[in-house]
Amino acid sequence: MSEDALIGLFVATVQFGTLVYLAALGELIAERAGVLNLGVEGMMAMGAVSGFMVGLETGSPWAAFFAAAAVGALVGGFHALVSVVLGAGQVVSGLALTIGGLGLAAYVGRNVVGERPEALFTDLGIAGLADIPWIGEIFFDQPPVVYVAVVMGLSVWFVLARTRLGLAIRAAGESAPTTDTAGHSVMALRSGAVMVGGAFAGAAGSFLSLYMAPGWVEGMVAGRGWIAVALVIFGAWRPGRLALGALLFGFTLALQPRLQSFDIELLGVQVNRISPALLGILPFVLTVVVLVIISWRYRHRPSVAPAALGLPYRREER
Amino acid sequence: MASSDADYAVWLRGIDKQFPGVIACAGADLRVRPGTIHALLGENGAGKTTMVNVLAGVYRPDVGEVWVSGRRRFFQSPADAIQAGVGMVYQEFRLVPTLTVAENIVLGAAPRLLRGSEIEQRVAELSATYGLAADPARPVWQLSMGERQRVEILKALWRNASVLVMDEPTAVLTPGEAAELGSTLQAMASEGRSVIYISHKLDQVVAFCDEATVLRRGKTVATVDNLDDVDLHELAEMMVGSSQSGALGRPPPGETGHEVLRLQGIHAVGDRGLPALTDIDLTVRSGEIVGIVGVSGNGQKELAEVISGLRPPAEGQVAVKGQDVTEASPSDRYRLGLAYVPEDRLGMGLAPKMSVVDNSVVRSYRSQRRGVFLSMSRCLEFCRGLVERFGVRVGRLNDPIAGLSGGNLQRLLLGRELAGQPSVLVAAQPSRGLDVQGVAAIQGHLVDQRAGGVGVLLISEDLDELLALSDRLLVMFEGRIVGEYGPDVTPRTILGAAMSGNPPT
Q: Residue B113: its chain A contacts at CB < 8 A?
C-alpha cells in the first residue's frame, strides 16, 4: 500500500469525522436538554439539498452553509413544536422527521439532481503548518468546515459546562420539574436546544453536498445521521469524548470504500477480503459495546444518560 | 401607617382550587407574619400542599388573592414566585442528582458565566453563615436525605427568599436531623424571614413553630396566633374535627365469623432500609371492619404492602383464610381471596393511559378468554357490569382511565377488586381526596362488603371515617400496634395513643 493511499485514508477520516461530529454535536445539545431527536438523518438530507441549491443560486459556499443551518433549525423546530410544546412522543416525532425529511429533500431537489455545483468549499492550506509531512496534509490542509467543527465543539463544551445557560440546559435534561421550579422555562430551553441541534445537522448535511460529494442525489446522507445518533451514546453525552468517537467512526467510514484496495495482512487476515458491509455496522457494534460498559460501570450511580431524556413535561399535572 | 395587609409576609385570601373531581381548596386563608415559623396543619387531602403550590406559582387559584410582602401578586409561573421572594422546599426534593451541590444551589440564580471554583466558594460561605454543612463540590446523588434538605434550604437562601415553605420537611429525616432543622429555621426566623412549615408531626410543630393555621377539607378551620397557648390534643382535634358527622350510621355489629386474615410476628424494612414494621400481630375476621389509626408514616403503607405481597417481610407470617401466603405472589393472594385497594390509585392501582376496559380486566383477564385470546366482547361486558354496579360515571369505555375523576377512579378500582368476590379487602386511604358523594359511595361499599361477610382492613387518616365504620380500631405508632379499641372509644383516647405511642387508659 502506498504512502499516498494511507494519507488519503486519514484525510478522509478527519472529513467523515467532521461530518458525523457536527451532526452528533447538535444531537448532543438536544439530548442534554432532555429531547431525543431521531430525525437527524432527515435534517441532514434537508441541509444537504438546501445547501446545494443555495450554492447554485449564490455561488457562495458560506451562504449555502448558513442557509442549510437555518433550514435544519426550521426542520428541528417542527420536532420542538410537536414533542416539546405539544408534548407528543419524541420517538414518533423524530422518526417522522427522518422519513418526512428524506422525502421532502428528494422532492425539493428533484430538478437539481446531477447538476454541476456552483459553490464548493476548498481546502485551506494553513500557512507553514500545511507543509509538515503527514500531519500537515491530514490536519492543516482541510476545508474550513473542519475547523468550524472544532470551534463549535469547544463552544458547546464551554456553554454547557461554564455558563448559566448551559447549567439550565443540563438541568432540563435531568429533571424538568426542578428546572421549572428554579424559574427557567423548560419549554424554551428544550425548544431552543432542539432548533440549535437542527442547525448543526443541517450544516453537516451541506458539508456533504458542498464538499465531500459535491452535488445532490437522493439518499446521499446514506445513514450518517443514524451514525451521529449512535455517536452521542458512544461519546457518553460529552463533547470531548464525542470528538474521539467521531474520529473512530470517521475512520470506519473512510475505510469502507478503500478496504478492497488494501492488499495487506492484519492479524492473519487478508484485509481486502473483509466485506465493507461488515465495516459499515462497526460503529453500531462499538456503540452497543460502549453502552454495555457504561451501564455496568454506572450500575451504582446515576446513569450518564440525561435522566429526563425522552420524557415530555407538563406543569399542572397532578 | 400601612394597611393591615402590609403587616403580613404572606396572605393567601379566600383560595379556591379545583382539580377534576377533587376540590382541593374551598375558600382557604393563610396569614403569616414576618419573622415567624408558621405551622400549616391538616390531614392529607386537606389542601395544604395545594395552598403552598399556589403560593409558589405552580398552581393558579380559581378564586382568591395572593399577597406577598404587602403586595398583591399574580404569579404566572414559579419564576414569578421566586422573584417575589418565595422559596419552596418540596416534599420530594427538587434537586438534580448528577449536578453538584453548588450547581443545584445556584440553578435559577446563577451568574452568566460559571467558574466552578468561584461558585463553590460562594456557596461554601453561605453554608458556613447558616451552619448548614454541605460540601459544594459533591454531586447530590451521594448525599443523605438530611444533606439534600440542607441543599434545598441553601437554594432558597441563595436567592435571598423572604418566605421559606417547607412541605413535610421531617418525613425523610432522622430524629437528630429533625432537631437540627428546628434550630436552623429558628435562626432564619430571627433574621426576619418567615417560614411556613407543613407537617403532621404535632410534637415538632409545638416544639418550634410560633403560630399555626389548620385546614380541613380545603377550608381554614382555625388559626392560632400563639402556639404556646394550646396543647397537642386541642391541635389534633382541630385537624381531624371531633364532630361525629358519620354520613352513614354504622350498622349494628353483625356476626363475625372465622378468621380470614392473620399476621403473626411481622417485621419489615422500609424503603430507606430502616425498620418500618416491628412485631405486628393482627387478625381480621369475616364480617368485620378493622380500622388502622395512626399519623401517616408510622408503617401503614408498609403494612398494606406486606399483606398484599408487594413487600416481603423480614420475619413473620401472613395467612389468608388459614393458608400461609408469606411466600405467595400478589396474584396468588388475589386468587385466594385477598383484594387490595392501594393508597396510590393512579400509580399503583390503575394504569393511567390504559383504557377503562383494560383497567377493569387486568385482575381477571384469565376468565375473559376465548381459547388463548382475550375476548373483547367479554371484557367489555365485564367492564359494563362494573360500571353499572358501582355507579362509575364514565365517558367512552375505550378512553384512557386517567380522564376519570378521583371518585370514579376509586369506584372502578374498588369494583374491580371486589369482582373476584374476595374474603378479605385491604383498603388504604380509600376515600382520601374524594368529594362528598365519592366518600359516601366508597364508605357504603365497605359497609356492604362487611354485611356480605368480607373481612375489611381499613387504613385511613380520617378519624371520623374510622370511628364511623370500624368494629375494632388498632393504633399504629412507629411501626408497632400500640393499642386496640372497641367502636365506642373517644377520639381523644385514640389521638393520644396515635401521637405518643402511649395509650392513655
A: 162-164
Residues of A with CB under 8 A from a CB of B: 161-164, 166-168, 170-171, 174-175, 177-185, 301-302, 307, 315-316, 318
Closest alpha carbon within chain A to B140 = A302
List the one residue out of B418, B479, B47, B13 whose CA is nearest residue B278.
Answer: B479
Report yes or no: A36 and A3 within 8 Å, Cβ to Cβ. no
CA–CA separation, A14 vs A7, rounded Å?
Answer: 11
A chain contacts of residue B82, beta-carbon cutoff 8 Å? 182-183
The number of residues making up chain A comes to 318
User: Mutate which of B80, B88, B96, B155 to test chain A, going by most A C-beta atoms within 10 A?
Assistant: B96
Nearest CA in chain B to A318: B19
- Alpha-carbon distance B235 to B209, whole Å? 13
User: Cell 451521594 maps to which residue?
Assistant: B142
Q: Tell me: the pLDDT tens digits for A141-180?
A: 999 999 999 999 999 999 999 999 999 999 999 999 899 8
Instruction: Show residues of chain B in contact with A161, CB under 8 Å.
Output: 114
Alpha carbons A80 and B414: distance in angstroms, whole number: 41
**Which of chain B's residues have a Cβ under 8 Å away from the Cβ of A162?**
113-115
- Spell out the long-range contacts of B372-380 with Cβ–Cβ below 8 A and sequence spacing 24 or more: none
Question: With an 8 Å Cβ cutoff, are B141 and A185 in contact?
Answer: no
Report yes or no: B160 at the A interface, CB cutoff 8 Å.
no
Nearest CA in chain B to A301: B141
C-alpha cell at A225: 445521521
Cell of B342: 392501594
pLDDT bucket at B43, cuts 50 / 70 / 90: confident
B94 touches chain A (CB under 8 A): yes
Q: Could you tell me the three cell numbers for B82?
A: 421566586
* Whole-number pLDDT of residue B340: 94
Say yes or no for a CB contact (<8 Å) between A174 and B98: yes
Please indicate if any CB of chain A lies within 8 Å of the CB of B347: no
Distance CA A148, CA B19 (A): 52
0.80 exceeded by pTM: no
Q: Do B111 and A171 touch (CB under 8 A)?
A: no
State phi, psi for B34 to the nearest 5 degrees: -65, 145
Percent of chain B with pLDDT over 70: 90
Backbone angles phi, psi at B151, to 5 degrees: -60, -40
Q: Could A182 and B95 be called an inter-chain contact, meaning their C-beta atoms sit closer than 8 Å?
A: no
Separation between Cα atoms, residue A173 and residue B429, nearest integer Å: 35
**What are the grid coordinates assigned to B314, written together?**
423480614
Full set of structural domains in chain A with CATH: 3-297 (1.10.3470)
Give the one of A166, A170, A181 whose C-beta lies nearest to B94's C-beta.
A181
Q: What whole-number distance in Å separates Cα of residue B151 and Cα of residue B124?
A: 11
pLDDT of residue B6: 57
- Residue recorded with cell 386474615: B261
Q: Which residues of chain A have pLDDT under 50?
A: 318
Query: Of B57, B87, B52, B65, nearest to A315 (Cα)?
Result: B57
Domains annotated for chain B, with CATH where assigned, are: 1-85+193-240 (3.40.50.300), 269-500 (3.40.50.300)
C-alpha distances in angstroms, B101 versus A180, A295, B152, B153? 18, 24, 10, 12
Closest partner residue to A171 (CB to CB) among B56, B107, B139 is B107
- Which residues in B217-258 belong to E strands, given as ranges? 219-224
Nearest Cα to Cα of residue B364 among B325, B335, B321, B394 = B335
Phi, psi of B154 (to 5 degrees): -60, -35
ipTM: 0.85
Chain A contact probe: residue of B50, B58, B107, B114 with most A CBs at under 10 A:
B107
Q: What is the CA radius of gyration of chain B?
A: 24
